Fold this sequence. Notes:
The structure holds two protein chains of two kinds.
Chain A: E1 3-5, E2 10-14, E3 19-21, E4 24-26, E5 32-39, E6 46-52, E7 60-61, E8 64-69, E9 74-79, E10 88-96, E11 107-108, E12 112-117
Parallel strand pairs in A: 2-12
Antiparallel strand pairs in A: 1-4, 3-9, 5-6, 5-10, 7-8, 8-9, 10-11, 10-12
Chain B: E1 5-7, E2 10-13, E3 19-24, E4 31-37, E5 43-50, E6 53-56, E7 65-69, E8 75-79, E9 88-95, E10 104-105, E11 109-113
Parallel strand pairs in B: 2-11
Antiparallel strand pairs in B: 1-3, 3-8, 4-5, 4-9, 5-6, 7-8, 9-10, 9-11
Amino acid sequence: AQTVTQSQPEMSVQEAETVTLSCTYDTSESDYYLFWYKQPPSRQMILVIRQEAYKQQNATENRFSVNFQKAAKSFSLKISDSQLGDAAMYFCAYRSARSGGGADGLTFGKGTHLIIQP
Amino acid sequence: EAGVTQFPSHSVIEKGQTVTLRCDPISGHDNLYWYRRVMGKEIKFLLHFVKESKQDESGMPNNRFLAERTGGTYSTLKVQPAELEDSGVYFCASSRGRPSEKLFFGSGTQLSVL
């Protein structure tokens, strides 16, 4: 079974600074997808960024980028120019490319609570 | 476009009672997922519908949980009888289909079993 580990329960960053959230995962599969989801106080989770394992190029979405190290099974999220609206819980998630047999769902880490200090 | 809607947003029941949670996915999304987060633990996958069929229900904890998706539209998750350990936030998500696609999540139902 796959596991996802987020070793930072909480992170704090000054507004306009850069912060990196760490995520490692364990899998024996070679084809999979990785995601970062943001959960603000409203509780509704929103996709921040995603990465396909077969792509070597790191995904980027505006101020959000990832450092995907497949061999090390690491998938960190970098937030540049942090804004107050970035404050939220951030979840790293893994999704197998297979279907069925327990593979359909996302496997989540425990989350990192990001605090933005003005 | 309306998002994924879940209700109730909160439910407080006593042990042994029955509770039904409802999820309305985004129109046109064939795939519907249920997840649960028990306090202090990871968000866990419960099951996956494709239209009205259960594609993967490997995450359902036991037979006290029953999920249905009538006509491939909205879905319900019934817990009968509820136990203390069922307390948590139940999330629903929907998507068009491919594994690489993003999921659209609802705001969840906070279930408290006393």
